[in-house]
């Protein structure tokens, strides 16, 4: 960099040394990493608290009552996600078990933290075995998530029945090659890139930098087998919920789900609301809308075709429900998803 004569920089600044070298250039700079806040550079980054909220809600939706976080202590993004995960669960009335490594080092590049994640395998295994089961575990990123899955296999712990694991980044190769495939929160990396370029353009034109970091919310979650589980102690209720999730695209009723659970409708609805936090009917609508969002992103089907495939009576009814629940029309949702690289935004 000493001999480089550029006009502006967008940088993933991991260390104080790199921050110092870039600041010596005396050109407008946008940081897209946030590992060295003391550098005082304009920052555009993933909203780690929103990431944690999505992960917590994903596990809560699956009925978990026990939760844990496994990250890289000392990595700022991991520490922020841990704090956010813990705080969101506390607001929902739950505690969170946090893995504490024997040694903590700060100020290292991300890749060094990831390498050190393999340094204490037996310690992590002891921690995993001691967790109350079933437990939903958030890993700070996909690398850590894969490490946790590997250690669960070594420890003889079943995933997702005993331990469900969710990561962050949606590295598709890494997630699909994990055993089982890893569920992951999807950051909006494309938007971060565009926003960083737009901010750098303003800085190069002489505009003042923003007085605070610009945080970009994640797009949503890609669910894979590492969290495809119903964490319910009530076996009958679990059977009814399983029925809903297997048949929501068909014109089913609460009565049918109650029969699958071997319960009366009234008892099923009461138990369902107490355990899941919403009624069976609301859960059916939620599952259908999640599938609608996937089809809007992944196909060019019109609304009538999508309604036919997702249990809605017709396209007009789907349009009404979608708009009421998500606050935007299906057409706008599809256009926004296409601009963002085809991934759906967060669930309602």
How would you portray this structure in words?
With 348 residues, the protein is of the alpha/beta class. The protein is 49% helix and 10% strand. The chain is built from 15 helices and 10 strands. It has helices spanning 16-23, 48-61, 76-91, 110-116, 121-130, 142-155, 172-177, 189-204, 235-247, 254-261, 265-276, 280-298, 303-309, 315-326, 330-339, and strands at 9-11, 29-31, 44-46, 67-70, 97-98, 135-139, 163-168, 183-186, 214-216, 220-222. The strands form 3 sheets. Strands 5-4-6-7-8-10 form a 6-stranded mixed beta sheet, with helices on both faces. A two-stranded parallel ribbon has the order 1-2. The chain has a two-stranded parallel ribbon with strand order 3-9. Helix 3 (76-91) links the parallel strand 4 and strand 5. The radius of gyration is 22 Å and the shape is globular. The N and C termini lie far apart (45 Å). The model is unreliable at 342-348 (pLDDT under 50).
Main features:
alpha/beta, two-stranded parallel ribbon, disordered C terminus
DSSP helix fraction: 40-55%
Q: What's the overall average pLDDT, rounded?
A: 90
- Largest sheet, described in full? 6 strands, mixed
Tell me the structural class. Answer: alpha/beta
Strand sequence of the main sheet, in spatial order?
Answer: 5-4-6-7-8-10
Q: What is the number of E strands?
A: 10
Helical segment tally? 15
**Low-pLDDT residue intervals, each spanning 5 or more residues:** 342-348
Strand content: 5-15%
Distance between the termini: 45 Å
As a whole number of angstroms, the C-alpha radius of gyration is 22 Å
> What overall form do the CA principal axes indicate?
globular
Series of H and E elements: EHEEHEHEHHEHEHEHEEHHHHHHH
